[in-house]
Specification:
By secondary structure, this protein is an alpha/beta fold. It is built from 5 helices and 16 strands. The chain binds flavin-adenine dinucleotide and FE2/S2 (inorganic) cluster.
C-alpha cells in the first residue's frame, strides 16, 4: 500500500481481486489535514488533501470511510462513514463535518492540521436533481446538514432556487447561515425555541410542498419518520418526490458485509453501494 502523505491514491491490487474490490482500493488514500474549524456547537469541519481525480469525482450524497485511530492502535477496528460536505477542486481538498458521538468521531475531531487520515472514498450513490427541477427543498437535521450543503452549492451554481430547512436542539447546533450561498432561503427550527420555529424542522415542510419540485433530506431516523408522515399528509399524489440519505451503521463500506442493509420495496439494499440515498417512497420504514 502506498502510504505517501498528501493524498496519493493507492494503486496496488492482486490478480484475485474482484472488480468491486479493485474499485474501492483505487479510492484508498492518505490525506493530510489542512484545516480544522469548530462549528455547530460540538462539531468540527475537517478539510484534508485528496487525490485530484477523487475530488473531481465527488458528488453530493457520497461519503468517505475513515480509519479513526492512530497507527499504534486497533481501536476502533472498523472505518467510520462521513458524508462529504465539500469538494474543492482548486485546493484539491475534501471537507467533512463531524459530531463527536463516540470514540472514533472524538478521535477524528481531536486531530490537528498536519495530521494524516487513512481514507476510502468517495463511496456510495448521489442525490439526483432532475433536469426539469427548478425549486429544491432541503430538510436537514443535525450533521445531516453536511451532504445537503454540498447539494445546495451545486444547485445554486446551476441557477436553481433552494430553500434550506434546518433543525437542531438549540441555536448552537444550527449550521451558520454564512456557510450557505447568499441566494438560499434559510429557515430554522430548534427544539427549545432559541432560534426560529420552536419545534421540529418537519413542522415547516408543508408550507413548501406546493413550491418544491424535489425534496432532499438527511438527518436522524426519527426525522425521516416525521418527514414521511408530513409529506404523505400534505403532498399531491407522489409530487414532490423525496430523496433521503440514510445513516446505517457501516462496517466494510463496499457492499461485502451486508451490515448496512435497508429494506426497500424492491428488496434489501446495501446502503453503502445502493445508497445512502434512496427514494423515500421506496424505503420500508
Ligand atoms: C452514510 C453515512 C454518513 C454519515 N455522515 C456523517 C457526518 O457527515 N457527520 C457525522 O458526524 N456523522 C456521520 N455519520 C455517522 C457517523 O458515521 C457515526 O457517528 C460514527 O460512525 C460513530 O462512530 P464512533 O466511533 O464515534 O461511535 P461509536 O463508539 O461506534 O458509538 C458511540 C455511541 O454513539 C452512538 N452513535 C453512533 N453514531 C451515532 C449517530 N449517527 N447518531 C446518534 N448516535 C450515534 C452509538 O449508538 C453509541 O452509543 C454518517 C453515517 C453514515 C452511515
Ligand atoms: S457496510 Fe458492508 S455491505 Fe455496507
Amino acid at each position: 500500500m502506498d502510504t505517501s502523505r498528501g493524498g496519493n491514491a493507492v494503486s496496488s491490487g492482486t490478480a484475485q481481486a474482484t472488480n468491486r474490490e479493485r474499485r474501492s482500493w483505487s479510492k484508498e488514500f492518505v490525506g493530510r489535514i489542512t484545516t480544522v474549524a469548530p462549528v455547530m456547537g460540538d462539531s468540527t469541519l475537517i478539510s484534508f488533501v485528496a487525490p485530484e481525480g477523487l475530488v473531481a469525482s465527488a458528488r453530493a450524497g457520497q461519503f468517505v470511510e475513515i480509519l479513526c485511530r492512530s497507527d499504534e492502535s486497533f481501536d476502533p477496528l472498523l472505518r467510520r462513514p462521513y458524508s462529504i460536505y465539500a469538494a474543492d477542486a482548486a485546493k484539491g481538498e475534501l471537507t467533512i463535518l463531524v459530531r463527536p458521538y463516540g470514540r472514533g468521531s472524538r478521535w477524528l475531531c481531536g486531530q490537528p492540521p498536519g495530521a494524516s487520515l487513512d481514507v476510502l472514498g468517495p463511496l456510495g450513490n448521489t442525490f439526483d436533481i432532475a433536469a426539469k427541477s427548478r425549486n429544491l427543498l432541503m430538510v436537514a437535521g443535525g450533521v445531516g446538514a453536511a451532504p445537503l450543503a454540498m447539494l445546495t452549492n451545486a444547485a445554486i451554481r446551476g441557477g436553481l432556487s433552494v430553500t434550506y430547512l434546518m433543525g437542531a436542539m438549540t441555536a448552537d447546533g444550527l449550521l451558520p447561515s454564512q456557510l450557505l450561498p447568499g441566494q438560499v432561503e434559510y429557515v430554522v427550527a430548534t427544539d427549545d425555541g432559541s432560534q426560529g420555529h420552536r419545534g421540529f424542522v418537519t413542522d415547516l415542510v408543508p408550507d413548501y410542498l406546493l413550491w418544491a419540485d424535489q425534496v432532499f433530506a438527511c438527518g436522524p431516523e426519527a426525522m425521516f419518520r416525521s418527514l414521511r408522515s408530513v409529506v404523505l399528509a400534505n403532498r399531491f399524489g407522489k409530487h414532490p418526490p423525496v430523496q433521503v440519505s440514510v445513516e446505517r451503521a457501516m462496517a466494510c463500506g463496499v457492499g461485502a458485509c451486508l451490515g448496512c442493509v435497508v429494506q426497500t420495496r424492491s428488496g434489501m439494499k446495501a446502503s453503502c453501494v445502493d445508497g445512502p440515498v434512496f427514494d423515500m417512497d421506496q424505503v420500508v420504514w
